[in-house]
Amino acid sequence: MEKSQLDLAAEAVYKKLDEVGGDPTKLPPVLQPVAILYTVQAMIDNGGFRYIFENDFPHTPPYSVFSNAYREIGAQEAANKLDRAVALFPFDHPEMNEEKRNEFMSTLDETSELFTLGDEVCGDESVWQRMEEYVAKHSDVFLQLNN
To answer: The DNA mimic protein DMP19 C-terminal domain covers which part of the protein (predicted)?
Structure first.
């Protein structure tokens, strides 16, 4: 099966990501949305927001880095839902405390807003379509990475 432009771009971006020690915020801004969302959206597609909140991400970026990446590709709804879910944590900077995040989530049932917001983003094919469009829009940059 032939790889999509997005898959090829992601492979090249991940090589660049290795070069900067795995911190996507150290990549050129145009590469950051793909570096972030190719992984984040795949995790959400497998288990909603719970999957991204259960564990710490390398370099513990604020969740706003993820929502900003969604906005950069034009996925406003996903960005807004993630921001709303993060705001439900009853403490500041939830990205910094895995234990408190998990304790809080354990008090919620599956119908809680935090989880239903994640369910709405889980499987949202428009996010992948917007990533494809983003790569096409910046094809000059992504093509250079593969050479």
So the answer is: 26-138
CB burial of residue 14 (10 Å; 0-12, 13-18, 19+): middle
Q: Greatest CA span in the chain, whole angstroms?
A: 50
Residue found under tokens 């492979």: 11
**pLDDT tens string 37-54:** 999 999 999 999 999 999
Using the predicted structure, report yes or no on whether residue 19 has a pLDDT greater than 90. Answer: yes
Instruction: Give residue limits of the domains in the chain.
Output: 5-145
* Residue 147: per-residue pLDDT: 64
Q: Which fold has domain 5-145?
A: A middle domain of Talin 1 (1.20.1420)
DSSP of 6-51: HHHHHHHHHHHHHHTTT-GGGS-TTTHHHHHHHHHHHHHHHHHHHH
Angle at 132 between CA 118 and CA 115, to 5 degrees: 0
Cα–Cα distance measured from residue 4 to residue 81, given in angstroms and rounded to the nearest whole number: 27
